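User: quick one, fold this
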Amino acid sequence: MNKFSIALLSALVCAPFAIALADTPPSKSDATSAWTEGGLEKVTVKGLDTVYTKPGSSLASYTKVLLGPISVSFRRGWEKQSAPGSRISIRAQDSQRIKDKLAKLVREEVVKQLEEGGYKIADAVDDDVLEVNMAIVNLNVNAPDIQSAGRVTAYAVSAGEMTLVAELRDAATGDIITRVFDRALARESFRPQRITSVDNAAEARSAAAGWAKALRSELDLAKGAGGKQ
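Assistant:
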């Protein structure tokens, strides 16, 4: 599995998504109840930490994917700190730029993987459309790319971490099929290394490619198994 963690959950305002963003960690019973809402049961899927799916469901009938807007949120308190190695505060425009770039990058990788697999990106609901809502939460960038008059050089043992949460639904009915949660870290070094915007982008793209491949793999597997999962 890709070291840069993933966690797929809902970008919609639903119980599991609220739990993922909660300031106070939910109790184990509350978390389990939210994730199993709709009769979902925990299953094992290669490359993903935690997956809940609807018993008897299949992804075999889907040939198109409707991607919802990808939201991005930082780890609590991250946006209030100063940029590493300087006294420069992280401004709202800097954090928003990072969010926008990451969301765009993730979408690009998902679209690339799906199209290479023969799946079409839908722009409307239909019977053969799988709706995928994704959100990146708890994003922690150790060496953020900020715009300033002076040069800022940042050193860290890794680029950081993020959690991607997603929810898969039947687009036509809105029925929940699968919820996935997975967390990973960027590659770490034994000692602090200089980290640039290029490094951040490379780590993020690697993670996004891993998420996209996991989705494509499950779609391919369902079709290869004759619709049985």
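User: anything notable?
Assistant: The CA atoms of residues 222 and 228 lie 6 Å apart.
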